[in-house]
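Worked example 2:
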Amino acid sequence: MIDALKKYLSQEIAAYIGLCYTFTTVSIAAKDEFGIPFSYRSQNFFAVSTSKAEQTKNRSDLDSQEAALRCKLANYSTQYFEDQTRALPCDDEFDFTFGKGTTRRYYVEQQLWEAMRSMKSAVVGKDGSELPLMPIYNQMRAIGLQEFHAHRSIIVVVRRIQLHRVTEEGEGEEYEDEDVLQHELGEPEPPSNITYTLGTARALYFTPNPDTGHFEFVANPTPVEKETPCLYILAWSTYFDDATGSGLNSADHEEYFAALVQSDPWWLVMQYSAGHPPYTGSAKDRTPHHDTGFDQACKHQALSFTYSREHCEGFNLNSHISGEHRPNLCNEYRMASLMAVTRGITSCQEVKMGEPGTSYLRIKRPVDFQIDHLQAMSLSQAIKGCEDLIRFHEKVEAAGAIIGPFVVRMGTGAVSCTDRDHADLMTKTKNVNAVKKYYLEKYPNNEILF
């Protein structure tokens, strides 16, 4: 069976798929109370025995092959993205060959392929090996084009998380960064004491429309569409229970989702990508943005376009046609970056790491729409996931459980506290039973969260 698969796919593609599957299988993702992943760990099943390990019986003395296999997977991935971008359909006049005299790269597809080739970094291992990296913006732009031209639909799931101001004195603790961000944006600083409940969760289905170049909302998908696996985008939104905004800033779910389905979903994806750090903090290139790289990839005069959070003039996923008034890749990136800053979604996570040895930190301010991760799923599975989550949180609220801003990982799940010292102490305690006992002494109504 394996040999037949290799022959059908090619040995390289079979190896690539095998590595993707293997690393997915051995990775443990922890999800918070709202089902949003916030922490990943490897079970490290790639260790090879050594004479020292046989003597000490210590796993740390095993020879791990994980780093080498990750490098191999990353090399396959970067090459795959380049090949898929190179194969995108384009205008008849389109030519990917660049002579030395080439000064202008007109088509977005051509610009993206050049950006794929030229904009790279790497994480250098202890043995000197390099794990190649690509900016997330290029990857997400390529994924959108690939899905659109393959006539595949996408699913967008949004989990709306309601923020509640707690007025009881002494019930919470402060942490700095989110407060500072809001202050810099000229908005009121959020209160120190916050608790959270699930507002709602919905799965939305979008299909590619070649007439407009956009993914467009389908209110009533067919039974076949509901069972067909496609790209699944998990997103979240936070809002205060007394919010008075409109559209994507509204606390009213019907108004919020009505505004979302009228928006261009892939333009929202690109704003997320522009606000995301291009590379990991351990990469050789730690440049916070890539204006210069995109400018060099385009070699094209910048043009002026009207854009907003919901839409961008000229931005679409159809093939770029000669003479068409559209933003080049550098224009797109700069507009998406400005929107990411305006919306406060640069390096924005629902739950993020705190200092070493301390609890994770949950966001304490409103965010209109932010993506967490992508995977493959059918619409029926996505709908069921939303329904299950809503039912679970109905029980959470009925039990009087409290969800706070300081998050503690518990295996593949999480619990949270309103008191930072309490959460930090739990984080440092290794005995799971002791952690659970200590937690329930302070939050007796939260046993349902385990």
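The longest helix spans residues 66-86. Confidence is low (pLDDT under 50) at residues 92-104, 169-190.
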